[in-house]
Amino acid sequence: MSDASGKWGDLAPRLISGAAMALGGLLLVWLGGPWFAALAIVAGALMVWELAAMTDRGRPSEAVMLAVLAAVALTIVLYTRDPFLLPLLALPTIVGLVRPGRPMRVDYGIYSIAIMIACYGLVAFREGYGMLWLLWLILVVVVTDIAGYFAGRIIGGPKFWPRFSPKKTWSGTAAGWIAAAIVGLIFLQISTAGRDLIWISALLAFASQLGDIAESAIKRRSGVKDSSRLIPGHGGLMDRFDGLLGAALFMLLVAQLTPVPVVRF
Questions:
Q1: For residue 118, what are the contacts with CB-CB under 8 A and spacing of at least 6?
Q2: How many whole angstroms separate alpha carbon 167 and alpha carbon 153?
Q3: What span, in angstroms and rounded, lies between the C-alpha atoms of 228 and 105?
Q4: Contacts for 53-57 with beta carbons within 8 Å, 24 or more apart?
Q5: How many of the other CB atoms lie within 10 Å of CB of 25?
Q6: What span is annotated as the signal peptide, if there is one (predicted)?
Q7: Residue 1 domain-assigned?
Q8: Cα–Cα distance between 94 and 109 in angstroms, integer?
Q9: Per residue in 139-192, pLDDT tens?
């Protein structure tokens, strides 16, 4: 196999499955309400299953059980909208941690609760601040990933954090920041957002990249290449949504620290 085919060999399946996920996801984001909540429930449950399977590959049935718990907890919280039930989001984390001798306990605990909070937060963000904010968030994550993918392969150069993510380069990382800032600039022209959106978009891209690095670190510690084989060319849902998790957690933090204005086209 030539260097070119090796470098770009995964491009076709990535594009096909990525386009299918993007179209389906954007449709559910547009519909909002119970449709987007259902997407968050399914995605959250599958990611908890992948995480549990990676961090304790000796008990596949336990991973399925934790995924079911995640789905039940997200369903109750998202469809009842009762703030007093929010602690249920920690259910798959607590149950997964109580088993004595569980390997990678800290990794599972931190990442599983992050998955649950991010899935809940994306739905709450869509309902509280509107579709435009969520569309901006998703586009920033997508272009950050795309710009990083192509810049990393075309430009190459020093690695960003080789200990945890051996493929991520400084060129790809910086390209992601620039691409995200451009998305922010475009949204300034088509919406009522303020100028701060440009640098916030770049920070959101960095949060997305940290989410990717966190998942890469777990995979390296687990000794696996992909979180699962659910998506052709992409691996598992965690492999695709790790950046979105980081971005969602960042925006949830921002929303707690400062008022988020309503933005319209």
A1: 244, 245, 248, 249, 252
A2: 9
A3: 19
A4: 53/228, 54/218, 54/219, 54/222, 54/224, 54/227, 55/102, 55/103, 55/104, 55/107, 55/108, 55/218, 55/222, 56/102, 56/103, 56/104, 56/108, 57/222
A5: 18
A6: none
A7: no
A8: 8
A9: 899 889 888 888 888 887 778 777 777 778 888 899 999 999 999 999 888 877
Query: Would 265 be classed as within a structural domain?
Result: no
> Amino acid identity of 78?
L
Give the count of beta carbons closer than 10 Å to the beta carbon of residue 98.
8
Kindly write down the DSSP assignment for every residue of 129-187, as one continuous string. H-HHHHHHHHHHHHHHHHHHHHHHHHT--SEEETTTEEEEEHHHHHHHHHHHHHHHHHH
Token pair for 88: 């249920």
Q: For 14-30, what is each residue's pLDDT tens digit?
A: 566 556 666 766 777 78
- Cα distance between residue 254 and residue 200, in whole Å: 10
Has residue 262 been placed in a domain?
no
Cα-based angle 206, 108, 216 (whole degrees, multiple of 5): 40
DSSP characters over 227-265: S-SSBTTTBSHHHHHHHHHHHHHHHHHHHHHS-------
Q: Count of domains in the chain?
A: 1
For residue 38, give its domain range: 14-257
